[in-house]
Amino acid sequence: MEANTLNELKKFALDIRIETLNMISKHGFGHMGGSLSVADAITVLYGNQMKYDPENPKWDGRDYLVLSKGHCGPALYSALAIKGFFPREELLTINKLGTRLPSHVDKNLTPGIDMTAGSLGQGVSCALGIALGLKLQNKPNMVYAIIGDGEAQEGQVWETMLIAPNRGVKNFIVLLDNNKQQLDEFTEHISSLGDIRRKAEDFGWYALTVDGHDLSAIDEAIEKCKAEDKPGFINMETVKGKGWPDKEAILGNHALRGAAFAGVDEAIDNLRKELAAI
Amino acid sequence: MKYEMFDAKKIIGEVTLQEADANPNIVVVSTDSAPRTGMAGFIAKYPDRYYELGIMEQSAIGVSSGFATAGKVPVFCAPAPFVTARPFEMFKIDIGYMQQNVKAIGRNCGFNYSDLGPTHYGLEDIALVRLIPGVTVLAPIDASQLRGAMRTMLRHGGPVYLRIGTAPIHKIFDEEAFVIGEGKVVREGKDVAIVTTGEIAVNVFEAAETLAAQGINAMVVTMPTISPLDEAIIRKAAEATGRIVVVEEHYEVGGLGTAVCETCAKIAPVPVKRLGVPHVYLSAGPYDDLVKYCKLDSAGIVETVKAFIAQENS
């Protein structure tokens, strides 16, 4: 990846994290941990990979992202606002009465959101349906789905894992935000996914593991998947809460409320300084 | 009265194929049962538009929703409990909430799968799907109406659930355009109104003749659309007769009977008797025996209507 592109992506990622922390802390509640762990994948998708038109969100040449771990809407809303799908000020309306930005992504409400998600495991099936529908029309559009490691405990995820290679879908890439934590506990202590990359490979996917906070590595992994004749599975090793050092990888950072946001202003300031220094 | 009998699955398959000829966006989604739903012709002619996913109804609903986003018109048909009860949340969110243009068919509804027993009965599918706002619920009365309902459903923009048995289905009416949301008075009467849906209606028609011979003139109203409900025709039946019996092959709780009660409570308060499957776990058994057990045969309907009138008059 060229240095300039990487710099732009780094700025975009910081911007997403700043907006995400700002919107959920000002609202006083939000899914902080996962929104921050998935921010770099969203950065690469909207910063360098996906085709889209903020002026025309339903443009039929667009690529699709289904955020199957729908509770991480704040990170995606931040990216969409930064890219011009709607005004940045609107981010502060999250979860207000009548908002277009509910905490979980909603097709009916938000420009740029193609699938409603929130009940885990469902979005990835819907994403596969889009990919199959586009493939049937010989369209080149890509379909991406982001799932969580906790979400991968849902049986429905494994239905999709089984179908996609069997149907010969190759315009479909699933990214696993493997932040190793779920609501109650570390995933490994609840029901470990084991060697998830290998499991995906055994199911017939082109599967790789990358550092989910290395923008170049994510981008390169997507390129590799696109070159393959199979659906792609990218196991992104991530840190829940990445970008707010005090909250990184600690239990209880899934969703924060009220007093748990103490110190968020300093965290945002530090991210702004980092952004200004690039 | 003797009616010509048709294979419901064959009708589903034939109409799907006809409509697919005209609409290249129609695709068929299967969970290991499409050929048994009359889709063999479609599969042979349009193999690339046929998606056999394997036994995974949750994903079948999700994948169908995704197809709709990609501009396709997916038709997913499987036994009623596996289309509604098992993937209920997917139905609610992926089809209902998102208002996706998905056509779901629950076959072998009611206790049609009498040889397979309670796991395969669809006795709560109307209740479940009519709970989901914005999903049309259809239950055609006869072979002609099934044909018309299939055609209308596939041309309609929006989510539809169609329930049907797969025993041979009577041809009672002449073919006519099927209009979603319209009930029909098929027999005038002043003593009681019998409101019914689905193929069990044929027993209601016979019961109405028997009642007439005994001096009870029953109005018969067919409701091939359960949601949205034709409230005007319920009001008309209530006002014309003062009492309503609802007959359906579904639990007495939650189905058309409940919908009629809700309507009567709102706009036409009259006594309502619900005659359906008792709210218990029904045994396996020969279909005709189950019909009799539930008093859904014509004799049971006559008995129930007469007892209801007597109770009202006492």
Short characterization:
The complex is a heterodimer of chains A (278) and B (314). Chain A is α/β, with parallel strands linked by helices and 278 residues long.
Structure, described:
By secondary structure, chain A is α/β, with parallel strands linked by helices. Chain A has a single domain (3-277), classed as Thiamin diphosphate (ThDP)-binding fold, Pyr/PP domains (Rossmann fold). Chain A is 42% helix and 12% strand. A five-stranded parallel β-sheet of chain A has the order 2-3-4-6-5, with helices on both faces. A two-stranded antiparallel ribbon of chain A has the order 1-7. The longest helix of chain A has 25 residues, at 3-27. Chain A starts with a helix and ends with a helix. The model of chain A has no long low-confidence stretch (mean pLDDT 97). Chain B has two domains: 4-171, Rossmann fold (3-Layer(aba) Sandwich); 184-313, Rossmann fold (3-Layer(aba) Sandwich), CATH 3.40.50. The model of chain B has no long low-confidence stretch (mean pLDDT 96). With 314 residues, chain B is α/β, with parallel strands linked by helices. Chain B has helices spanning 8-22, 40-45, 57-69, 80-83, 88-97, 125-130, 143-155, 201-213, 231-241, 256-267, 287-293, 298-313; strands at residues 4-6, 26-30, 50-52, 73-79, 103-107, 136-138, 160-163, 169-171, 184-187, 192-196, 218-222, 225-227, 244-251, 272-277. Chain B is globular and about 65 Å long. In chain B, helix 10 links the parallel strand 13 (244-251) and strand 14. Classes of the chains: A alpha/beta (278), B alpha/beta (314). At the A-B interface, helix 5 and helix 6 of A face helix 3 and helix 5 of B.
